[in-house]
Q: What sequence folds into this?
């Protein structure tokens, strides 16, 4: 099987892993090496239907010795099986990067032979990228539960972010649907990653101060930081009967005890026929959306789980966002005066976010704020007006200040997830590398003529490369992106991409 066929199989098999997140790390370009990483994020280019395409998201292999009921790659499924060689995947990553298709790599894997053997393959791949090619772009690596601590440590020094999938919200559900995995095998690498990050950060802080480091072996100054962008995890929602109350309490515990950067929720997608799985064919996208909103309140608004949800009402309201639901349950707290309320009270108002509350606190030092001023600050005044007063006047004139009256004003059902199974024409969560996407003339991504080498044309989304540099500006300046050079003796025409070097294998774009 050639590399292109492997890519088609393993990129499709990786689409159920969530990867749309900011990089969380700043790393500048360096002479003699390739690429950089921006803390602001890695998601700069999107497909016509809104999916991020800037990470090459693949599996090392879809061969797996485990038989998890919910997984399309489980051992009992009859699907085409293949695996990348480390050199193949490293060359593939660089080929896509040089063509401005991707800015980094998201690498997960099935379990080939054993967790340790699989992790060794991933380490070899990342070592080629980091050490041979000098790749400084973003790499997110999935740690395989059950991997030995030594290999977790080696992988962590090569990746920017690591994650261990929690998979399911309870030990009972894990035992039912993923009998080959255990709670210990999942939590042990998560604890190790957390401890290693803290140790690495403390060591580097001491060395920056040139303080005597009391160990027998002094760490190398040039050694890569251990998982500098932190760790995350992913849970499947809807495959088991756990409530939102249980899921959010588990998320809060993970943030508190393991210092996770993010907990991802993935609505259960039926891909296997199994008596242990739910009979429903619907995808719980509405529930996933509400869980993300509640998770945002936990991380950035300093809410407690018990404020958002309780055992008497264990599921989030599908027609009301969690913050508005909290406000309706605490009408005695409102209305608050925007010209006097402290920051902690302002962020509790529906329609006022963290940024908006900071702007209000700053602006009211020099002026008294009313409706026009709040709208100019970007406040969602249509929602916030029911819970605030401006200069002593209640802004929600005409509405009944009661739970029922305000709920009628604020309820907004989510329309995105009511279509049952996701459309068969669209691969969930990820753009296909091979299928052509038909778009209107207004949204069509601009293309340039490809070189006469059978190589793919470089994408130009809104005239920008994934790294955010204008292709047109690069052409005028005569400086090609990604450090590539124009052919010797030839001048680069304005607005045109330079010729790219030969790929280790020909990329072919297949028609839909």
A:
């Amino acid at each position: 099987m050639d590399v292109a066929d492997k890519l088609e199989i393993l990129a499709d098999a990786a689409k159920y892993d969530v990867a749309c997140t900011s990089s969380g790390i700043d790393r500048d370009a360096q002479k003699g090496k390739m690429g950089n990483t921006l803390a602001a994020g890695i998601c700069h280019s999107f497909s016509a239907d809104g999916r991020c395409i800037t990470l090459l998201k693949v599996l090392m292999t879809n061969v797996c010795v485990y038989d998890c009921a919910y997984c399309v790659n489980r051992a009992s499924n009859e699907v085409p099986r293949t695996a990348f060689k480390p050199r193949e995947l490293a060359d593939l990553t660089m080929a896509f990067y040089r063509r401005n298709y991707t800015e980094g790599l998201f690498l997960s894997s099935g379990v080939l032979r054993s967790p340790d053997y699989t992790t060794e393959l991933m380490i070899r791949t990342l070592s080629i990228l980091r050490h041979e090619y000098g790749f400084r772009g973003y790499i997110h690596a999935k740690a395989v539960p059950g991997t030995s601590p030594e290999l977790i440590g080696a992988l962590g020094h090569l990746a920017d972010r690591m994650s261990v999938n929690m998979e399911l919200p309870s030990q009972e559900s894990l035992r039912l649907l993923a009998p080959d995995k255990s709670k210990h095998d999942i939590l042990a690498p998560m604890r190790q990653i957390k401890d290693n990050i803290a140790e690495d950060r403390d060591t580097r802080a001491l060395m920056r101060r040139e303080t005597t480091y009391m160990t027998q072996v002094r760490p190398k100054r040039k050694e890569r930081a251990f998982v500098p962008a932190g760790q995350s995890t992913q849970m499947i929602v809807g495959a088991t009967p756990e409530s939102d109350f249980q899921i959010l309490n588990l998320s809060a515990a993970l943030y508190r005890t393991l210092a996770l950067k993010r907990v991802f929720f993935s609505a259960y997608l039926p891909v296997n026929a199994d008596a242990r799985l739910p009979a429903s064919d619907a995808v719980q996208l509405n529930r996933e959306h509400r869980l993300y909103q509640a998770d945002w309140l936990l991380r950035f608004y300093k809410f407690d789980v018990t404020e958002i949800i309780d055992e008497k009402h264990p599921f989030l309201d599908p027609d009301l966002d969690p913050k508005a639901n909290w406000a309706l349950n605490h009408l005695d707290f409102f209305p608050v005066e925007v010209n006097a309320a402290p920051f902690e009270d302002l962020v509790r108002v529906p329609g006022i976010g963290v940024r908006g509350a900071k702007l209000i606190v700053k602006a009211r030092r020099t002026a008294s704020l009313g409706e026009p001023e709040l709208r100019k600050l970007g406040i969602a005044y249509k929602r916030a007006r029911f819970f605030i007063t401006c200069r002593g006047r209640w802004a929600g004139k005409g509405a009944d200040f009661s739970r029922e009256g305000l709920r009628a004003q604020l309820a907004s059902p989510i329309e995105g997830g009511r279509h049952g199974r996701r459309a068969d024409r669209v691969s969930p969560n990820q753009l296909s590398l091979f299928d052509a996407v038909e778009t209107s003339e207004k949204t069509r991504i601009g293309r340039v003529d490809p070189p006469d080498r059978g190589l793919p044309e470089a994408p130009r989304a809104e005239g920008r490369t994934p790294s955010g540099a204008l292709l047109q500006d690069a052409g005028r300046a005569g400086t090609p992106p990604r450090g590539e050079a124009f052919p010797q003796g030839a001048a680069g025409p304005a607005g045109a991409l330079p010729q790219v070097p030969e790929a280790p294998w020909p990329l072919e774009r297949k028609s839909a």
Remarks:
- The radius of gyration is 25 Å.
